[in-house]
Design brief:
- The complex is a heterodimer of chains A (about 300) and B (about 260).
- Chain A is α+β, with helices and mostly antiparallel strands.
- Chain A is built from 9 helices and 4 strands; from the N terminus they run ααβαβαβαβαααα.
- Chain A folds into 2 domains: about 180 residues, no CATH class; about 100 residues, Alpha-Beta Plaits (2-Layer Sandwich).
- Chain A has a 4-stranded antiparallel β-sheet with strand order 2-3-1-4.
- The radius of gyration of chain A is 29 Å and the shape is elongated.
- The two termini of chain A are about 25 Å apart.
- Chain B is about 30% helix and about 20% strand.
- Chain B contains 7 helices and 10 strands.
- In chain B, helix 4 crosses helix 5.
- The model of chain B has no long low-confidence stretch (mean pLDDT about 90).
- Chain B folds into 2 domains: about 150 residues, Rossmann fold (3-Layer(aba) Sandwich), CATH 3.40.50.300; about 70 residues, no CATH class.
- Classes of the chains: A alpha+beta (about 300), B alpha/beta (about 260).
- The interface between A and B is medium-sized, with 18 and 25 residues.
Chain lengths: ~300, ~260
C-alpha cells in the first residue's frame, strides 16, 4: 500500500515536471560520461603499464632461445654464468647508480604475460619458452638511465636494455592531461547537475504544496512526505547515469574494440569489461548527487 | 483534552504578542467556540494546538502531551489525533471526493482494506453517500465542506479543530454544517471552532471563549457571540457635512496658489 502509493506519487511528479526531469537526465548523462571517460583513461594507463613500470626504470632483457638480431646473442640463450657476470658488473661498476636489482625468470615472465593477455597476443598462443628472462633495475637517480644503458648494452647475454619510460611517459602525460580535462568538465557538469536537481525538487515541491500541506496536517511522517521527491531526483539521476554507462559502452565497443584494436593491435586496450566495472561507480555517483541535492532542498521546502 | 497554561506567543521580537498569557482548559467531549475579531489570536491558538508553532512562553497540552516540548519526529503522531477543517476547504482539486478522504489514510500508511471500508462509511455519515466519485468542483460549497470534514474525521481523531468552517457558506448551508459538527461532537469528539458567525454561536449556546488582542476576555459555559459594534455608528445626522461645533455650513474656499 505505502509502497504503491509512494510510487504513484513519484510517477505523477515525474509526469508533471517532464521538462525539468529530462534536463536532469541529460545533464547527469553528460557529466557522468565525463566522469566515466576519466576513469576509463586511467584504466587504459593501467593497462599500458606492466607490473614493473612503477618499480623500475631500466629493464635488461636477456637473450631468449633461438636466434635474434642482436650480435650479443650470437651464443643463444643467456646462460647462468652470463647472468652472474652481469650482476657482478652492476654490483661493481654501477653500484652508485643502481639501488636494487630483481631477476625475472622465464616462468615469472610467462605468468605475468598470461595475466595481461588472457586471450593470447595478436592471435597467437605463446608458451613459457617464448618468454625471455630479464633483470629489472631500480636506479638511485632516474636521470641516470643513459649511463646504465651504456654500461650494459652489448654485453654477452643482453639482448636489449630498455627504458620503457622513454616510450610511454609522453603518452601517459597526454592521457593524464585528458583525464584532468575530463575531470574538470565533469566537475562543472556535476555542479550544474546538483543545481538542476535542486531546482527540480523545489519546483516539484511547490507544485505539490497543497498535497504536502494536507499530508502534514493529517500526520504523515516526514519521510513519507519527502520520499517521493527524493525518489524523483534519484530516479532521474540514475537514468542519466545509465545513459552515461550506455554511451561509454558504445564508445568503447565501436571506437576501441572495433577500430583501434584492429589498426594498432600490439597495445592492450580498455574493453567492455572495464565499462561494466566503471558503470556501477557512475550509478553510485548519481545517487550521491541526488541525495546531496535533496538533503539541501527538502528540509527547506517540506518541513513539518 | 486541550490545556493552555499562561501561553504567550510573540511572532516578531518587540511586537505585540499574538497571545498574551492565555490559560484555557478544554475538557474531553466539549464543544467550544473561539470568537474574537480578526487578529485577536484565534488562528494562533489553533496553530499552537497543531504544533505548527511553539509558544514563546507557557505550556500547551494536547491529549496529554506537552506539545511545546514535543520533538519533531513525534509531531505526526500528535496530528493523527487531530482533525482540521478550514474556511477554504482545502480539497485536492485533481482527486475525487473519495480519493480526497482516502488520501488522509493513505499517507499515514493505513492498509487498503481499512480505507475501502472506512471511507464510504464516513462519506455516508457526513451526508455525501453516493457522491464519492464527484470531483470537488462538481460539488456545492456546503458539500465541499462536508467532504473536508469527512477527511478530517476519517481517522477518528479525538479533537476536531475548525477554523471558520462556515465562513464561505450561506446561512442555511452553515446550519447543516453546524448540525454535522454537533453530531460529530456527540460521538465524543472534542470540537474547537473559531468563528465570526454570531448567529450560529447564539443559536448553539455552547461554551464561548472570546479573545481580544491576544487576551481571553470572556469564557462562558453557555454563551452568545457577545456585543457587536453597530455597522454605522449613530453619531447624528450627516456628521461629515456638518462642521463640528456649529450648525452653519462653511462655504468652500479656493486653495491659494492653485
Amino acid at each position: 500500500m505505502r509502497f504503491q502509493f509512494v510510487l504513484g506519487e513519484v510517477f505523477s511528479g515525474l509526469r508533471r515536471n517532464t521538462t525539468m526531469v529530462v534536463a536532469v537526465v541529460l545533464v547527469t548523462f553528460v557529466s557522468l560520461t565525463f566522469v566515466g571517460a576519466g576513469a576509463l583513461l586511467q584504466a587504459q594507463i593501467g593497462k599500458l603499464k606492466d607490473d614493473w613500470y612503477d618499480k623500475v626504470e631500466v629493464s635488461v632483457f636477456l637473450c631468449p632461445q633461438g636466434t635474434t638480431a642482436a650480435p650479443s646473442c650470437a651464443g643463444g640463450e643467456a646462460t647462468e654464468d652470463q647472468i652472474e657476470a652481469l650482476r657482478e658488473v652492476i654490483r661493481t661498476e654501477l653500484s652508485g647508480e643502481v639501488s636494487k636489482v630483481w631477476f625475472e625468470s622465464k616462468q615469472q615472465a610467462f605468468a605475468a604475460f598470461e595475466e595481461r593477455y588472457p586471450d593470447g597476443f595478436q592471435g597467437t598462443q605463446l608458451t613459457e619458452e617464448d618468454m625471455q628472462a630479464s633483470l629489472r633495475l631500480k636506479l638511485t637517480d632516474a636521470e641516470q638511465v643513459a649511463v646504465v644503458s651504456d654500461v650494459l648494452s652489448g654485453r654477452d647475454g643482453v639482448e636489449v636494455v630498455a627504458d620503457q619510460r622513454a616510450v610511454f611517459e609522453p603518452l601517459f602525460r597526454t592521457l593524464n592531461v585528458a583525464t584532468l580535462l575530463a575531470a574538470g568538465l565533469a566537475g562543472v557538469m556535476l555542479l550544474a547537475a546538483v543545481l538542476l536537481i535542486t531546482t527540480t525538487i523545489r519546483l516539484s515541491a511547490v507544485s505539490r504544496r497543497k498535497e504536502t500541506e494536507i499530508m502534514r496536517l493529517v500526520g504523515a511522517s516526514n519521510l513519507f512526505i519527502q520520499l517521493p521527491f527524493l525518489l524523483e531526483g534519484a530516479l532521474a539521476a540514475v537514468l542519466g547515469s545509465l545513459l552515461a554507462g550506455g554511451g561509454l559502452w558504445l564508445a568503447v565497443r565501436f571506437m576501441v574494440t572495433d577500430w583501434l584494436e584492429r589498426s594498432v593491435d600490439w597495445v592492450a586496450y580498455v574493453s567492455e569489461v572495464d565499462v561494466f566495472r566503471v558503470a556501477p561507480l557512475l550509478v553510485v555517483v548519481a545517487v550521491a548527487l541526488a541525495a546531496l541535492s535533496s538533503f539541501f532542498t527538502l528540509n527547506r521546502y517540506t518541513r513539518i | 483534552m486541550i490545556r493552555f497554561e499562561n501561553v504567550s506567543k510573540v511572532y516578531a521580537r518587540g511586537a505585540r504578542p499574538a497571545l498574551d498569557r492565555v490559560s484555557v482548559d478544554v475538557e474531553r467531549g466539549e464543544f467550544v467556540f473561539l470568537v474574537g475579531a480578526s487578529g485577536s489570536g484565534k488562528s494562533t491558538f489553533l496553530s499552537l494546538v497543531l504544533r505548527e508553532q511553539r509558544p514563546t512562553r507557557g505550556r500547551v497540552y494536547v491529549a496529554g502531551r506537552d506539545v511545546a516540548n514535543l520533538s519533531g519526529w513525534r509531531v505526526p503522531t500528535l496530528r493523527r489525533q487531530l482533525g482540521v477543517v478550514f474556511q477554504d476547504f482545502r480539497l485536492l482539486q485533481n482527486k475525487t471526493v473519495h480519493e480526497n478522504v482516502a488520501f488522509a489514510l493513505q499517507v499515514i500508511g493505513k492498509p487498503r482494506h481499512v480505507i475501502r471500508d472506512t471511507v464510504p462509511e464516513v462519506l455516508e455519515m457526513v451526508g455525501l453517500a453516493g457522491k464519492g466519485k464527484r470531483m470537488p468542483t462538481e460539488l456545492s460549497g456546503g458539500e465541499q465542506q462536508r467532504a473536508a470534514i469527512a477527511r478530517a474525521i476519517v481517522n477518528r481523531p479525538q479533537i476536531l479543530l475548525a477554523d471558520e468552517p462556515t465562513g464561505n457558506l450561506d446561512p442555511t448551508t452553515s446550519l447543516g454544517i453546524m448540525r454535522l459538527l454537533d453530531r460529530i461532537n456527540r460521538t465524543g469528539t472534542t470540537v474547537v471552532m473559531a468563528t465570526h458567525d454570531d448567529e450560529i454561536v447564539n443559536e448553539m449556546r455552547r461554551r464561548v471563549v472570546e479573545l481580544s488582542d491576544g487576551v481571553v476576555v470572556r469564557d462562558e459555559a453557555r454563551g452568545g457571540y457577545g456585543e457587536r459594534e453597530a455597522i454605522l455608528p449613530d453619531v447624528g445626522a450627516s456628521p461629515v457635512l456638518d462642521a463640528p461645533g456649529s450648525g452653519t455650513r462653511v462655504p468652500a474656499q479656493p486653495v491659494r496658489g492653485s
